[in-house]
Amino acid sequence: MRALAAILVLVPVFLFAVVAAGLDTLAVILWRRRSVVPGVARYHFEGLSPQGAVALSYLVSLTPGTTSLDLDLANKALTVHLLDLGTREASFAQVRARFERPLRAIFPERRR
User: Among 8, 34, 49, 56, which is 20 to 30 Å from 73 by CA?
Assistant: First the structure.
């Protein structure tokens, strides 16, 4: 039941994130309201099974302005290309709150 509730929360949250990021990316491209510094950063996650980590990488890649480049399961890290490195902390905080938290309920890490 907990996983089902997390899915029901994740779907609209993800759709909202895609639209919001798409509009932000569009504004940067069309109107260049701010200067951007694209680049690569590492995002560290925890509490996800390998399937959950893959799902996280897909959600990140499907969100405009970010692309997953590498998934390191051993170190629980995702290498991400960001449209603007200046927003790295805010972007990662949103990924953690919007995507990682519900994915932990759907794909919890199995303890050995």
Answer: 8
Strand runs (DSSP E) across the chain, as ranges?
A: 39-44, 66-72, 77-82
Q: Which two tokens stand for residue 88?
A: 């790295």
Specify the pTM.
0.91
Give per-residue burial for 31-54: e unless 16+ CB within 10 Å, then b: eeeeebeeeebebebeebbeebbb
**67-102 per-position pLDDT tens digit:** 999 999 999 999 999 999 988 999 999 999 999 999
Least Cα distance to 25 among 97, 79, 82, 89 occurs for 82
Element (H, E) at 99: none
